[in-house]
Amino acid sequence: MKTAIIGAGNMGSALAEGIAKKIGGENIIVCDTIKEKALALSERTGCVAGNIKRVCEESEYIFFAFKPGSLCAIAKECSPYFENRADDFTVVSMLAGVRLSAISTSFSFGRNLPVIRIMPN
Question: Rounded to an integer, what distance in angstroms lies between the CA atom of residue 24 and that of residue 47?
């Protein structure tokens, strides 16, 4: 199982740290638009710092932990990789105020896939 987290800010970091304790950092890919943030997170948690291409092509569970305002830009970058996948994967969104329908229409998954919304507390 490969888990990925797009976003290495406060929420993405907390998520990576918690998941790494359960499944091991080597099973988690983290990426961020600021590469240094992803590298720092990988050093703290043992996660693998990667890029959008690797996250989108290799991960079974992909957590969206970036700012909602980045949705369009990240969707544009991810969609070609998602469209080329033949296997199923699950998207888990932590994007405040973004409906599941907005995520499904923003990203070109190429088919119906599970999209889950979580609200951290």
Answer: 8
Q: Where are the alpha helices (DSSP H) in the chain?
A: 10-23, 35-45, 52-58, 71-83, 100-106
A 10 A CB-CB count for 14 gives 13
CA 78 to chain centre: 10
Residues 6+ apart with CB under 8 A from 115: 90, 91, 92, 93, 100, 103, 104
Within 10 A of 82 (CB to CB), how many other CB atoms are there?
A: 19
pLDDT in tens, 1-24: 599 999 999 999 999 999 999 999
Question: Burial, 33: exposed, middle or buried (Cβ in 10 Å; 0-12, 13-18, 19+)?
Answer: middle
Structure tokens at 49: 């710092």
- The pTM for the full model equals 0.93
pLDDT in tens, 52-61: 999 999 999 9
